[in-house]
Amino acid sequence: MSWWRLLGAVARPAAGRLTVAVLAGVAAAGAGVGLMATAAWLISRAALHPPVLHLMVAIVAVRAFGISRGVLRYAERLIGHDAALRVLGALRVRLYTRLERLAPAGLAEYRRADLVQRMVGDVDAVLDLLTRVVLPYAVAAVVGAGSVGLVGFLCPPAGVVLALGLLGVGLLVPLLQAATARRADGRFAPLRGELATDAVDLLHGLPDLVAYGAADAQLARLAATDARLRAAQRRSSASTGTSAAVSALATGLCVVAGLAAGAVAVRAGTLPGELLAVVVLTPLAVFEAAAGLPAAAQRYAAARGSLRRLADVCAAPDPVAEPDQPAEVPAGPHTLRVSGVSAAWVPGRPVVHGVDLELSPGRRVALVGASGSGKSTVAALLVRWLDPCAGRITLDGVDLRRIPGDQVRRVVGYLPEDAYLFDTTIEENLRIGRRDATVAQLRAALADARLLDWVDGLPLGLDTPVGEHGMALSGGQRRRLALARALLADFSILVLDEPTEHLDEATAAALTRDLLAAARDRAVLLITHRTDGLSDVDEVIRLGAVPTPVAA
Ligand SMILES: Nc1ncnc2c1ncn2[C@@H]1O[C@H](COP(=O)(O)OP(=O)(O)OP(=O)(O)O)[C@@H](O)[C@H]1O
């Protein structure tokens, strides 16, 4: 998807508001030009001492233009920002929805900090694009054309001078600026993404970097990226400064040239003397409206770089293809059957081969194997984050490829090894599983995960904050809380990925026992490194080996 298509798609619902903002901007700038023209005429005319009644219309017009200019400018800002913020919101939702669809397999090539930079900084660039590029250019184009018409009507040569000056400031200077600074402006967004990634890497890895004495090298890398960003900013600022100077010069030249053309016209008798000031001073107000155009052109280049990065994410291919004609998820109880399945993250390089397993209500299956043997890949297949490259997975006889991923994930719940706990209360973390759960249901899930006594003993109970990444809890408590959340969501089939990783033997054995008991009549696939303590499961499947029935 190209960046302008993306912008068009998210901006369409706000097109009406944007148009009103442009109209208010045109009216405000028009009032500015009208104020200057009327005031110029009024001063010239007043110098001839006419009866004051002859000046009344102009006096009232000056007042009306002066007051309405401020009011209209306020309206333009208000409506323009309202429209742009709506577009921003729509773009953020679109990007988030896309990330949701891509995660996790489709995001492998992106760094997290860079994605955050895209979500925040690059999306914000759209605000700049609409309020500081589109609006000023639209307003300057309309007001410029109108003013050239007015001045040209009074004194054609002065109109030509004004038209040339406006073309110079609005088109020529931005084009020259783009030629000198386009590369620098377009590099801002990627360089900011790189800088964010380096900074987050440094912060996360700081203890290891300090322990190995490698912090200086990482800092040097960060400094080098920062230096490249500063160099780009310096180049861009130099070109902005030059453009501002050239624009000011062009404005001055236009006024002088307009004065010369007007004076010639007055001498030739084609322009009444009191209109000379109108011809000379009106361009000042028009150039005020056009003065921001070179900076707008620069912002355009930077915003285009940001939008391209967003369009890249939106155009990234889906890791799994959603069905054209989706099948209904059959009513429970559910049975998931995996037959001769192979899977690859990279096409042509399968990492699991010929896996068979069945998860029917109440059945517990353990999936064991060495690190890297593909256990988590099997989990990804079951929740349809990945489709098999050979073999078949069915849910109650329906091929999983025919069921939309979201619906599969309503039946099959995945509890990853590092289930994320949000930096909020125990209750809010549980409610991710089921938003509308009653307190009794929350307590029941905690009881099933053997966490209720501990929560009841806390001074704040369910309102206890868990800290960033659940750091205020022990490793075992974190996993039990994540399990309670999964139980609350009431999936028919639960895939538990290394739930006892990094726990001591006794805690791990107790947790495994508890979670298998808590799953009750649900089907459970327990992925684990540990081969001991699996006496409670019905079958142990060793990846790459023949399945070993443990109990009937
Ligand atoms: N999102 C991904 N993109 C690309 N390759 C991946 C992805 N996830 C896993 N792999 C690759 O698939 C292979 C199997 O990895 P997987 O995580 O399934 O193994 P595992 O048995 O769960 O390992 P561990 O026990 O260490 O967690 C590895 O070679 C890994 O590099």
UniProtKB/TrEMBL annotation:
Pfam families: ABC_membrane, ABC_tran. Residues 336-552 form the ABC transporter domain. NCBIfam families: CydC. Keywords: ATP-binding, Membrane, Nucleotide-binding, Transmembrane, Transmembrane helix. It is a multi-pass membrane protein. It comes from the Bacteria. It is found in: Cell membrane. GO terms for cellular component: plasma membrane. It comes from Krasilnikovia cinnamomea. One of its GO terms (molecular function) is ATP hydrolysis activity. The chain crosses the membrane at residues 20-43, 55-72, 134-154, 160-179, 244-269, 275-297. This is ATP-binding cassette subfamily C protein CydC. GO terms for biological process: cell redox homeostasis; glutathione transmembrane transport. Gene3D superfamilies: ABC transporter type 1, transmembrane domain (1.20.1560.10), P-loop containing nucleotide triphosphate hydrolases (3.40.50.300). Its main location: membrane. InterPro entries: AAA+_ATPase, ABC1_TM_dom, ABC1_TM_sf, ABC_CydC/D, ABC_transporter-like_ATP-bd, ABC_transporter-like_CS, P-loop_NTPase, Type_1_exporter. Residues 20-302 form the ABC transmembrane type-1 domain.
